[in-house]
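ARCHIVE CARD
Drawer: 12
Card no.: 0347
Subject: one protein chain, sequence and derived structure
Cross-reference: see card 0346
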Amino acid sequence: MQATGSVWVLRAEDLQQVRKLVKALLAHKQSVKGLERITSQLLSSISTSKSCSCAAAVHLIEVIQLSSSAAVYSVLTASTPSLLRKHLAPAVVRNSQRQPRTLLVREMKKWCALGEHDRSFIKHFQKLCWYESLKTIHQQLAQTRMPTQEKQHHTFQARLADVRSEILADICSMQQMRDEACPPRSDDRRTYAKVPSCTWKSSGWCGVNLGGWLLWEPGPANNSELIASLGADADIPDDEWTLCEQLILKYAQVKAEALMHKHRSTHVTREDFIKMKQLGVNAVRVPFGYWAIAGPGEGEPFMGPCVEFLDAALRWGDEVGLSVILCYHSAVGFQSYDPPCGRSNEKWKPKNFNVAANVEVMRQVAKRFGSHPALGGICILNEPHGDLPAKALNSFFEGAYSVMRVSEHLPESVQLMLPVFHHEFTSFAGRYTPQKGFVNVVFDVHCYQVFGDPYAGWCRMSLAEHLRYAIGKASSHPITGIVKRNERVVVTEFSLGLPVWDKKYMISREFAALTGTEKKLLMRSFALRQLSSFATYTEGWFFWCWKDDSGPEWSLSESMSKGWMPALSSGDMNSADTASSSCGETEPPSSPCLSFASSSDISAPASPCDIIEESPAPHGQKHKILITSEILSAKRARMQVLENEVAPDISMVEGL
């Protein structure tokens, strides 16, 4: 029978009640009154949302209960029952002995027969309950007195069930996830009236970084012709300083400069700007070093200046309709000893950072580019090291602001972005407000869940914990401390990178145990949760990078083609602009999005719901992003949510 019900999405508050009910059903000390109270709260929540009738709600509750019993039954039959029974609550064991699979399939068919919800939702909801139950059972068993090897087994199974539960929760809660897991057919008669709007879409920047272009660092251009010119046996250079040294040593100055110029002329072109526009990007962030403006210092191997490429980026942005953010990625004297600053040098000292010289570079940037119509913002500095004193940074920030806004009359519409990186926000809070004479200043953070030593603890987290952290409500999240103080923030770098390459950590084994479809849905969920967090609390984001040889998790173009990142828009452009482009395209390509026939291979062990049959299921605009007072008011209202948060274990994005 063709499903005609509406596509219902599970709200965050409903999901919390579902998980509470599962835990209560599997608790060692079950309370009849407690179960009745939680069940009543869930029914009340569903009733308030008017998402289904009382009859459908009753079937939903029954599916939760039977899924819990079926999960226990599957664990008991897959292991030594006598050994496990003594570790599980007697009531839980008794409930699982009623052959719940048959009852569960019958209950799901009754729910489907009501026609209120499509079978896809019912199937995924049952799987959500199934894996939430498995997670709870394995967590309980891992905490009992068992041999270490068995405990590790149950811990691993709990983590696998946890991440599968999170993925399914998103499938049940986000239409964008459901479209990937089970794309609707053209003859689908379902209605979508109850599906909320896409809360991950930002009202501000939706941008991408052009790394590896005007400032080379490992990753974005590892496989470029420029690196190949060093020779097949050459190692990837640590930074641009080393790259320039090696080029000069091998080819001498003149040819080395010619090779660098060729790389800068070909790595990013106008065609890339057109493709980015077609994918829905509204801004690009262009990293550059001081030598691009002022030329290299005495004895330095850098090759510059190369302002003509910054001119080209702004010209292309103006022609195509993209805002351009200029990012001061490498400062005079350097702001760090890490590769992104241009030179990886462990002998670097914070005193090397030359405040006066860097203020002068900012003055030249504002003088040359400040009046360009495509200039949307300037990142005053990228990733200053934690050892660089906040006093020196504030001195630089204030000096740079003064020469740009006052001396060079930089328009107030151009956003100035100040980095909060490895520094306590208290060192900057309240200093750069309109009340103190600073106009359109926003703080700049990078949100990576992969870097650090050793991996900053990311490798010890489970995949499910990474998904929950991406929501942006943890106290340690880069944006939390800023929005709690009601200050403005933008995410200028983030990616889909996760620390899953080192097999000595359990997170790597978790990732390896997932099926191919599960991995794709995991990345989709990770992307949507980050974007939803950024849309809720920040003024926009910039993905790292447009193209990156380190892998698709670092490349916006590849991650969108794989369906990990959602399509940002239809990408329509003025036909005249497109026709006049150097690539000669007259029609923007449809947004690339990899679809999966179903998510039925979210498995191991198989859910009994698999028995249920699946139903068929312009150019000329102003390029600067102006943050209006209405948008700011809405952002501040959302920020108040953080003040009232008491339960960090929220696995769904707020507002969905």
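Annotation on reverse: Residues 18 and 133 are 11 Å apart (CA to CA). The chain has two domains: 12-195, 205-579.
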